[in-house]
Specification:
Elements: E1 2-4, E2 7-9, H1 12-40, H2 52-61, H3 63-69, H4 72-92, H5 97-117, H6 120-132, H7 136-153, H8 158-181, H9 186-208, H10 213-244
Antiparallel strand pairs: 1-2
Length: 246
């Protein structure tokens, strides 16, 4: 390893690998996001599921769609965010190490909270138990357990707000780091700032202001589109950085 201003520097090959993995993770996230959009057009993809029994029924009839509606694809996207944000930190460690590290840590906290609160697979197990229940008391107990799960893990509700809040806050902060770092182009930074801000407003509206839910959906569409563009620009930018690393 080379010594740079008192800091141990990673070998070039390792730095390239980190950036390459970050770029691949960003582009894979885009693929998952498009997959999420396509799933919406499948049977049950846009179905409104409200009650616990409705969730159990959907999970029993179409377990994939049930898990998807409970955040399965979000689990994948949050997971891909781990190497992506680490690569963003690695790319900016020399120009804005403190705030890049802060954005990365906030992102990881959001991932941890999301994993801790998501109840998709727990609901799937409860649905199986409910299908096999033979007494009313068993069914009542399972319905109560399902309701408790939904109060914590239903996407875009007060139960999941903190996880998404940290995720979108980290995106805004990292986009500000990108703006000041000048390693990626300014368009990437501005698109990220606006996109994540719109998504944050969407989470606030859908979680706490039901009367503004329709407005929130428009914000989600705009923020989601900008987020996809942000990820594409990041993926391309990472792969360009790999070629520049010496």
């Amino acid at each position: 390893m080379n010594n740079n201003s008192g800091n141990m520097e990673l070998p070039i090959s390792d730095r390239k690998n980190i950036l390459k993995i970050g770029g691949i993770a960003a582009l894979l996230t885009v693929a998952v996001a498009f997959g999420e959009m396509l799933v919406t057009f499948l049977p049950g993809g846009n179905e409104q599921v409200e009650t616990v029994i409705d969730w159990f029924t959907q999970l029993q009839s179409n377990w994939f769609m049930g898990l998807r509606n409970l955040g399965l694809l979000n689990i994948i996207m949050f997971t891909l965010g781990i190497p992506m944000y680490f690569a963003l930190y690695a790319a900016h460690r020399k120009v804005n190490k403190t705030f890049a590290a802060l954005a990365m840590i906030i992102s990881f906290i959001g991932v941890a909270i999301f994993f801790a609160t998501n109840r998709a697979f727990s609901m799937l197990e409860l649905s199986k138990q409910y299908a096999g229940a033979v007494t009313d008391s068993q069914r009542s107990g399972l319905l109560a357990a399902g309701q408790a799960m939904l109060s914590v893990g239903k996407s875009h509700s007060p139960g999941t707000f903190i996880a998404f809040f940290f995720g979108e806050l980290s995106g805004i902060l990292m986009s500000l780091v990108i703006l000041k770092g000048k390693i990626f182009n300014k368009a990437t930074a501005f698109i990220g700032i606006i996109g994540f801000s719109l998504l944050l407003l969407f989470e606030v509206f859908t979680s706490f202001v039901p009367a503004l839910k329709e407005i929130g959906m428009f914000l989600a569409m705009g923020g989601g589109a900008l987020n996809v563009i942000w990820l594409i620009l990041l993926g391309i930018g990472f792969l360009k950085l790999v070629k520049k690393e010496t």
